[in-house]
Amino acid sequence: MPHDSINHARIVSLIWGIADDVLRDLYVRGKYRDVILPFTVLRRLDTVLESTRDAVMEMKKLLDDAGIVDQDAPLRDAAKQAFYNTSGFTFKDLRSTANKTRLRQNFEAYLDGFSPNVQEIIENFDLRHQLPKLTKADALGALIEKFLSLDLDLSPTGLDNHGMGTVFEELVRRFNEDNNEEAGEHWTPRDAVRLMTRLMFEPIADVIPSGTYRLYDGAMGTGGMLTVAEETLKRLTAPSGKQISTYLYGQEINAETYAIAKADLILKGDGQAADNIVGGPEWSTLSNDAFAGQEFDFMLSNPPYGKSWKTDLNRLGGKSHVIDPRFIVTHDGDPEYSLVTRSSDGQLMFLANLISKMKHHTALGSRIASVHNGSSLFTGDAGQGESNFRRWVIENDWLEAIVALPLKMFYNTGIATYVWVITNRKEERRRGKVQLIDATSWFTPLRKNLGEKGVEISTTDADRVLQTLKAFDQADDPDHSKVFDGVDFGYSKIAVERPLRIAGVDPHRVYKAAEIKKLKEEGVRDESASPVIKKALPYAAKPDPLHGRYKAVIDGRTRVVEYEPDPELRDTEQVALTEPAGEYADGIEAFFRREVLPYAPDAWIDASKTKIGYEISFTRHFYKPTPMRTLVEIQADIRALAAETDDLITEIAGED
């Protein structure tokens, strides 16, 4: 293990040990995080500010004496950081306070002395609410003493900014495992993030010009995706001498993880980025968009999977009253085309939020990488939100590729996951096409599982994915890469009706609605009976049996009529949008005449119920049948089982 990794693991163990030593009988194990995470942040801030404390205090006095109210900028300058503390206290000063009541007062003054951006971090950690319990148990002083241990060096000289981020992430992971939290709710493994950022940047790295770029994550977690994306963009463009600057933007509803993300950015010296992220319980991305109307160059997210967003849906007005332009769009002539998914799973809503922020008037447009579970590929019937979303993205030709990741990639789940790569500036060769990459077998096993995570995507594995993506239709690897026309994923869902047939029905009269209702309730269904006629069309109407218009004699005259459909015989069929029309008007008619009419000659299509849907099935496209066992192998197993049974019987008999 590299030296840095050993040091990070040692620090995490030391901090974890503090939790066990000080909080064991005071908090249940799942609540250690409420104290340990904010104290880790505070101790790091404390070490960073130590060298400029006197300069900050002098500046504070100078500003107060001059009656200057807006003191933030000069105090930041004095601290030489994007944050400061004007309390005059440090952890070392607090340690010398023996009286526990006075210690609490001094500690509160210490917290109050931080700059407004750090105050927001403290508030979202909800640390002040822990102080009464810590004080009563005389644990506050013990915590401060433990965090001042010489073995636990959280200063910039002992741990650089990246290392501090790694320590944060590992602590969050361990706390999440203890709490058995939902998969991927707080943060995404770095190997997955690196792959996502490469998928986003690498295909266009050569054409990214020098300039300023805006990066956004709508489900930010601890902010790792944004910082890795920033690093990746600069690394890929540096060899060609590009001058790249970035602005980071993000939103996160979880208070703790938002606090960590903001603290991490501040500690890295990126105060502006810290000011550009928004979070806390009132800042749900779906119902309270902090960046409405803004556009970004590059976006990425790991939204929550399978998590109810019913509260957000209610805030948006309920499913039938949503008017947010992120989720109600114009498509295929429908000005109220709904992308609103089931309230039980809102992951595609997060992706719709990203797409709503794409740039449409720049040369590069926008690129998006978002990771989802398998339900985003196929759940939702034709006309429902999930299917509508897939149709919208594919028919607008924004979906570049989907990459299936290995199982056991994430810390709290072993489920299948997929990275969606989306852009509104496809290469010419990719126009109208979608590439599916099965990277489930491209992984490197970990020597020891980290939670549920048993594999990682190494640099070599990621290189293979990127090479396959760039090769596109030239990739000679059909087991792992396939290219489709976007329309290949679409289908028409048609309603197949058959007439209601009731014994004794008059085939030459039209039945009223009340009569039909009574027939359904009291009549006897008979397949040989005449169909129930519900409507006679005008004399000029043309018969069209395919769509339920038939000839019948009514009052001695031939009319075109419609039969009452029998709900018990109603069925649906999915017809691929690519179904060949052959000699017929369209693929639907060709399918219907081939697959339905031979078995139900009286059936028709209710065209008013036809809906278009889209689904993407990796299983179908990359299915590898398991070879059947040979007869010799089966016989050998039977013999082995028989021999084992004989041995057991002999052994039992011997015991008797």
From TrEMBL:
<dbReference type="InterPro" id="IPR029063">
    <property type="entry name" value="SAM-dependent_MTases_sf"/>
</dbReference>
<dbReference type="GO" id="GO:0009007">
    <property type="term" value="F:site-specific DNA-methyltransferase (adenine-specific) activity"/>
</dbReference>
<dbReference type="GO" id="GO:0003677">
    <property type="term" value="F:DNA binding"/>
</dbReference>
<dbReference type="GO" id="GO:0009307">
    <property type="term" value="P:DNA restriction-modification system"/>
</dbReference>
<dbReference type="Pfam" id="PF12161">
    <property type="entry name" value="HsdM_N"/>
</dbReference>
<dbReference type="GO" id="GO:0008170">
    <property type="term" value="F:N-methyltransferase activity"/>
</dbReference>
<keyword id="KW-0808">Transferase</keyword>
<dbReference type="GO" id="GO:0032259">
    <property type="term" value="P:methylation"/>
</dbReference>
<dbReference type="InterPro" id="IPR002052">
    <property type="entry name" value="DNA_methylase_N6_adenine_CS"/>
</dbReference>
<feature type="domain" description="DNA methylase adenine-specific">
    <location>
        <begin position="161"/>
        <end position="481"/>
    </location>
</feature>
<protein>
    <recommendedName>
        <fullName>site-specific DNA-methyltransferase (adenine-specific)</fullName>
        <ecNumber>2.1.1.72</ecNumber>
    </recommendedName>
</protein>
<keyword id="KW-0949">S-adenosyl-L-methionine</keyword>
<dbReference type="InterPro" id="IPR022749">
    <property type="entry name" value="D12N6_MeTrfase_N"/>
</dbReference>
<dbReference type="Pfam" id="PF02384">
    <property type="entry name" value="N6_Mtase"/>
</dbReference>
<dbReference type="InterPro" id="IPR003356">
    <property type="entry name" value="DNA_methylase_A-5"/>
</dbReference>
<keyword id="KW-0680">Restriction system</keyword>
<keyword id="KW-0489">Methyltransferase</keyword>
<dbReference type="InterPro" id="IPR051537">
    <property type="entry name" value="DNA_Adenine_Mtase"/>
</dbReference>
<feature type="domain" description="N6 adenine-specific DNA methyltransferase N-terminal">
    <location>
        <begin position="13"/>
        <end position="147"/>
    </location>
</feature>
